[in-house]
Backbone:
């Protein structure tokens, strides 16, 4: 078994800053003083000529993509910066170059400038791939996922939340009440159990057999949180190989079963992809039973 890596994410960028340039990134090197980002106005204008304001703007000639909007957070840029610092094969994670925050009204608009990874998504290639190609790319995913799942926090400061020790960034949890930084697995799982019973005058009087299934003693590991084929970039040639995993906005510290549960959550149970998920992330059938009940009871499907 590979050794775990303790506290890999240190000296993180300050996500509250309105501007951040990662001057050691390939965007700025070797001409640090002369290269600038497209302005927010340019980004919006380009996005309107492409897929619209709800989608990232691509600057193909610059090898640049800009993810932007009021729902975007600088935490995603921090996630990208952090994982590239500690992962051995950095090409599997897009390089982040910087961000800008436009204060306009109650909700600021965030612009994250990052590397445009070339290649089709696994979703685009899947139906035309041979079984051997599917095995190869899932093996690549297994190696990559296993690598970042080795990361652990310090024993004295374990939390379930973002890499910056902020709120849990998972999309399916963001709108739920009393979301917070959870100091233990038990507190996180107690919260999930309480949520579906909270409208009863006496929530504790309702038995929850699914809570008993979730162990309080398992590890908390680094998790991508959205391993779906649209977030996986692959080669066009056979054997199909993994190029990059994108969309790290939900990444953070979660119970060890969360990656598998979320991958299944985003897949069609009767689709072929569902049957391949266990090839790259270890399944936990009991935990998935609890997870499925909670997301169903909370109306998250």
Residues:
């Amino acid at each position: 078994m590979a050794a775990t890596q303790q506290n890999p994410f240190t000296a993180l960028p300050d996500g509250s800053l309105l501007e951040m340039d990662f001057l050691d990134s390939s965007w700025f090197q070797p001409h640090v003083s002369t290269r600038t980002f497209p302005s927010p106005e340019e980004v919006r204008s380009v996005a309107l000529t492409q897929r619209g304001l709800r989608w990232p703007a691509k600057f193909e000639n610059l090898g640049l993509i800009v993810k932007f909007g009021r729902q975007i957070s600088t935490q995603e840029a921090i996630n990208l910066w952090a994982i590239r610092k500690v992962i051995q094969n950095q090409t599997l994670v897009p390089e982040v170059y910087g961000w800008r925050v436009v204060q306009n009204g109650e909700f600021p608009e965030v612009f994250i400038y990052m590397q445009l990874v070339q290649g089709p998504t696994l979703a685009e290639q899947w139906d035309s791939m041979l079984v051997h190609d599917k095995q190869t790319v899932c093996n690549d995913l297994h190696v990559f996922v296993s690598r970042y799942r080795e990361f652990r926090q310090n024993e004295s400061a374990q939390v379930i939340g973002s890499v910056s020790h902020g709120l849990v960034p998972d999309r399916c949890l963001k709108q739920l009440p009393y979301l917070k930084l959870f100091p233990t697995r038990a507190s996180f799982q107690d919260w999930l159990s309480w949520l579906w019973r909270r409208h009863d005058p006496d929530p504790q009087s309702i038995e929850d057999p699914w809570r008993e299934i979730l162990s309080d003693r398992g590890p908390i590991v680094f998790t991508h949180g959205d391993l779906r084929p649209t977030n996986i970039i692959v080669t066009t040639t056979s054997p199909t190989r993994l190029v990059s995993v994108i969309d790290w906005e939900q990444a953070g510290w979660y119970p060890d079963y969360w990656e598998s549960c979320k991958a299944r959550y985003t897949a069609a149970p009767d689709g072929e992809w569902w049957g391949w998920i266990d090839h790259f992330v270890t399944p936990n059938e009991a935990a998935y039973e609890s997870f499925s009940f909670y997301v169903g009871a909370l109306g998250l499907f």
